[in-house]
Design a protein that fits this description.
With 426 residues, the chain is α+β, with helices and mostly antiparallel strands. Helices cover 32% and strands 27% of the residues. It is built from 13 helices and 19 strands. The strands form three sheets. Strands 1, 2, 8, 9, 10, 11, 18 and 19 form an eight-stranded mixed β-sheet that branches.
Amino acid sequence: MTTNNVVIAGGGIGGLTLALTLHQIGVPCVVVEAAREMRPLGVGINIQPNAVRELLEAGIELSNLDSIGVPALEWALVGLNGKEVYSEPRGLEAGYKWPQYAVHRGQLLMMLYNKVIERLGKDAVMLGRRVSGYQKNTDGVTVFLQSPEGEQTALYSQVLIGADGIHSSVRAQMHPVQPPIHWGGAVMWRGTATVRPMRTSSSFIGLGTHRHRMVIYPISHLEKDGTALVNWIAEVTVDNADGWQQDGWFREVDIDHFIHHFEHFKYDWLDVPAMLRSADCAYENPMIDRDPVPTWVDGPVALMGDAAHAMYPTGSNGASQAIVDARVIGAKMLEHGVTDIALDAYNDQLCSKVSELVLRNRGAGPFVLLNLLDDRCGGLFDDIEEVLPLEERNDLMARYKQAAGFAIEELNAAPPTIAAGSKVSS
């Protein structure tokens, strides 16, 4: 049995950010990852300014983020008729002290992984093992590991952090009686295409209604020919009475499998069918989350990221919140040591607040404007002011930013989560 201060179950964005954070504050740790090798899986995601701030304060540089994505300039919602419903600047353009980044998820993962290996050493990430369970002890926790071949081993640590995703084994033991994964009926097809960005060189565009929409944004800088790698998400909501009928939650599909839903999404500034037909990949998955649980903590064991709060991607909060989780855990360990008390303080600060965000995203998150528009006019309008006045639009967006933790004034004024040079007392 091997002893570690902290065992992190899961080498995703949250788990790797936590490893970098613990190294920064002088806490030894090991990441246990089920994959036999780290690969750049996924497509585009957004990292909000609050999370970009945390990455920079963890020692990631803007040049690292520039190498895997592009700063977002604008966030815009557009009705079914192609007319603007709402738009606002994002990141530095909006007055934040930190940018918002649209990045390739897999490249972000690999960048974080390489940073962990560079700073903590090649043995800091244990590949080909998954955390299958834990046993609390009087002075820590025994963490049980399993290989793909069924080999059982164990680690002893002061603390176990479950960062093992929506199918978390740590969460399943902590909360053995919980509802199954929740699917509200939305099916997403995701991919990338090399095309000219729309509106600006880096606009996030939500187009359609809450039941039938596209999300489009670049995840690379412009090439000399004016094109960029553009991430797209095509989404429809169907009857979910019989549950998800596919064997898995994620699969590659042909464009012809779903393009018929979007054949009429053609405007003078965007031809969605043409963009989809130029795609270099397409993946299908249901939009899923989990019902909030009353606590993320069980003594020396805590949940973070999707294991704690898997949420709909409507607000681009998932990866950002996982990064924030990691930094708050680090801050609480600075205050209370590598102890149950630190985990309780982390839980007290975030569990209730983020659980509310999970439910808010289930209700369409910032896309609530498209819900209202659909209810009031079916997504078609001549003058948006007559349907959804600016004051109402601004108020709804301000409330969402407040709930999601990236209200401009509060974020800009907040002190660092972890002060530079801080170390946990031995």
